[in-house]
Fold this sequence. Notes:
Elements: H1 6-32, E1 43-46, E2 54-69, E3 74-76, E4 79-80, E5 83-99, E6 104-115, E7 126-135, E8 144-150, E9 188-197, E10 200-208, E11 230-231, E12 239-247, E13 269-285, E14 294-312, E15 317-329, E16 335-338, E17 346-347, E18 361-365, E19 367-377, E20 389-401, E21 408-422, E22 424-439, E23 442-460
Amino acid sequence: MKKLTGYKEFHITCLFLIVISYQSITIHANAQDSTKKKEIDELRLKLTEDGTHYLKLAILGQLWLRFNQSNPASTVLKQPANETFDIGIRRLRFQFFGQLTDHAFFYLHFGQDNFNFLSQRKFAAFIQDVLAEFKIKKSSEALILGGGLTIANGLSRFTQPQLGNIMSTDIPIFALPTFDLTDQAGRKLSFFARGQIGHLDYRAVLSNPFPVTTSSPAPPAGNPSSPNSSFAQQGHSLQYSGLFIWNFFEREPHVLLFMPGTYYGKKKVLNLEAGFITQKNATWSSPDSGHTISYHTLNCWSVAVFYDAPLNAQKGTALNAYLGYFNYDYGHGYIRYIGAMNPADGLSSANFATGSQGNAFPMFGTGNIFYAQLGYLCRKDLLGNHAGTLMPYATLQTAKYDRLDKQMSVFDVGINWFVKNNTSKISFDYQNRPIYYLQNNNLTRASTRKGQFVIQYQFFF
Length: 461
């Protein structure tokens, strides 16, 4: 990575000054307000005296300040952009759910993602989840049936992430293998069964995925003209998925089907996980420019171990660790670039793959992926009385995809500042990614790499 220019240093300095100023203001305000009364920790309305039937509202917001070193040939509004600085709303979500009877539960989820200066204005929010669940036996988690528009999935815990409780600044998007192509932000119209039997946590899902032609923006129409696979634009098949988790220590909570990335030392969890997603005739390719078409079954599976537990309960320290292996088969040669809330919108050269501008990298592909994360929660009130604590972390996604000549590795290092537990959190993240050139329809790794710096403020209650 090249040495930062004065322009880059100026923006990064500004980001640090914002964090330091906010910290000083917060510590001073907390010192003056040490005698305040106990606060309500959730927006919850009891429907029965014992609270077993209830309605609850939860709100999540993630705001980004970002400096990015652009991938080669990136343009912003048709102008070359070697680097960008943007302010954006990574996510804004409203969740309303409740236990209406001993057996009936509902969940509504509404919001928007990825709003920055390149987005269409008026901030068009959309429905994320609408589902209903029925618990077969009162006070038992053995079998819960549900359905609707939902992120209920197989494959892995990060394929149905609980966004307010992830350890890193952002989720590992690659764990959603059909993201925004045949699903809607990971959601599909599905029927599922989930539950806990002893130490076993399971979920089995039947999904009716969306046609790729209704994704936004829609892919080019017509037959494939490349030997490399892409999602089929004709025909339709159901999708099947499952996830099976063995809880060695404490069982994970089962109120919502979302799965957190960390419990901040509040639980002792050690899990062995395995999952899959499969769909017949999901992709196609052609060796002869569309005259002969071959259909391929989408097959994705993973195994992983997840650990999250306190180290010293009195001090509040904890350790979080995850290691997973993912095997993706979309058909020969499939590759897809994604950049989270991409700050560039075009390419000025044909020497790079479609969608590789800005902060994008080969997120998905036919091949093998390892993903690891590690975090350490420091002692409570590390920064002073009522001033919060810190959680440094690191993540790594490393993959060998068919069309890449060399291993692709993307790493993040960062730190979370829990200003007020997880209700108010500031995160600083640095991501480093590889660059690939397009040569004879294959991708060759360059010697240079690029990085991005993100400061995120999250509110979640």
